[in-house]
Amino acid sequence: MSFIPKTGSFEGMKSLNKSAIMNIIRTQGPISRADIAKLTKLTPPTVGSIVAELHQANFIKEETGAAKSQGGRKPIMLSLDTSNYFIIGLYGAAEVITTVVSNLDGEIIYSHNQEVFTSPSQEEFLTMLKECIQSTLRTNSLQYSSIVGIGVAMHGLVDPEEGIALFAPHLNLTQIPIKESLEDTFSIPVLVENDVRALTLAESWYGKGKDVSDFICISVGRGIGSGIVLNHKIYTGKYNSAGEIGHTIVDVNGPRCKCGNYGCLEAFSSESAILEKLKRGIRFGRETILSETNLSIDSVFQAAEKGDSLAQEALEESGRYLGLAIANLINIFTPSKVILEGKLFEAGDLILAPIRAMVDRSTLKSSPGSEAIEPSDLGKKGMAIGACTLVLRSIFKPGGF
Ligand SMILES: [Zn+2]
C-alpha cells in the first residue's frame, strides 16, 4: 500500500529512505545524524539532505545532546516533532462511529463517539463519516494541511486496496466507496481496513503484540473476528477475509447463525448470543435477578458478580466455546500470544477461567496452552487506534507491518 500525499508540506515526502530515517528517529530518537547513517547504512550526505528536508517540513526537531567526551563537540540530536501533524482515525462499528485524533507517536489526543441511527443508506452513512471528520477538525482547530491521513477501521468485509467496505453486516450496506468519497471531499489520503485487522496492527505497534512475531488477536462484540499475524505479517488470505473465527463451527447441532450456517462460534459466544440465551432463560422462567427489559452486557456482569446462576452460566458457556475455537487456532498456528479484545473480557475470570480451562484441555502439548492468552490493554479505542496506525504505517513503514 503506497502513501501518496496530495496536499500540504507532505508533497514529495514519500521515499523509502525517508521512511526508514523517520522510523529510526521515531523508535530510537533522540538520535544523531551519524548514528542514523550507521543504522540505515546510508551515506552521511544522504542522511544529511533527507534530515534537512524533514526538519524544513517540521517533521523532526533538533536538540543538543550531551558531549561524548571531555572537550568533544556536543552532537545535535534528532527526535520526532509531534506538534505539527496529526492523523484522524475512524471506527465504523455497529451502532457508533468513534473518531479519534492521534499525533505521529500514536498518542490519542481527542476522541468522540457518534451514534449511528438505524439503517442509514449508503449516502447517509458516508455523510455521517464526513460530519464526524468536519466536527473533529473544528473542535480541535485543526487545518486540513496538518492532517497527514485519515484511517478508517470498518466492521465487516473490506477491500483495503480500493478502500471499499464490501459488506457491513450491522448496517446492512454493501459496496461503500469510503476512500473515494472521503478523498473527494477532503483531499487527504484515506486508508480503509477491516476493524479487527486494524486492531491487530495497533496491537503490533502499541499493544500486547509489540515485538511478537506470531500472535492472534480475537475481538468479541456483536460479532467475533480475528487477525492472524504470522512471522511479523498479517495474514489476509486471497480474498482479504482470513480470520473469520466467528463463523467456524463449534457444534454441528448448534443454533442458526446470521451467516446461515448452524453452530458457528458467533451464535454461542458473541454479546448478542449471550443476551439471546438469557432472554430465553428468562422466558422459560429461570430464577434470575435479570429482567428482559433492561438486559445489557453490563447488567449481565453485575448479576453474575452477585452470584446469579443464569448470568454466570451464560458467561461460562460463551467462554467454553471461545476456548474451544481458540484451542483450535492454537493447535493450527502455535502463536506465542492470543490477545483478547472486547467488553466481554471486562468480566475477568467469569469469562477468562472457562476459556483457559477449555484451552488447556484441548491444546496439544507441543502448543502453548492458556498462558498464551492475554486480554488487550488498548481499551475501548483499540479499533480507532488501529485506524490511525494504518496511516502511521504508510508513513514510517510503507509495505511493512
Ligand atoms: Zn456464522
From TrEMBL:
Pfam families linked to this entry: HTH_24 (PF13412), ROK (PF00480)
CDD domains recorded: ASKHA_ATPase_ROK_BsXylR-like
Entry superkingdom: Bacteria
Keywords for the protein's UniProt record, in alphabetical order: Carbohydrate metabolism, Xylose metabolism
SUPFAM superfamilies reported for this sequence: Actin-like ATPase domain, Winged helix' DNA-binding domain
Coiled-coil segments: none
Transmembrane segments: none
Purpose of the protein: Transcriptional repressor of xylose-utilizing enzymes.
PANTHER family recorded: BIFUNCTIONAL UDP-N-ACETYLGLUCOSAMINE 2-EPIMERASE_N-ACETYLMANNOSAMINE KINASE, ROK (REPRESSOR, ORF, KINASE) FAMILY
Annotated family: Belongs to the ROK (NagC/XylR) family.
Designated name of the protein: N-acetylglucosamine repressor
Native species: Sutcliffiella rhizosphaerae
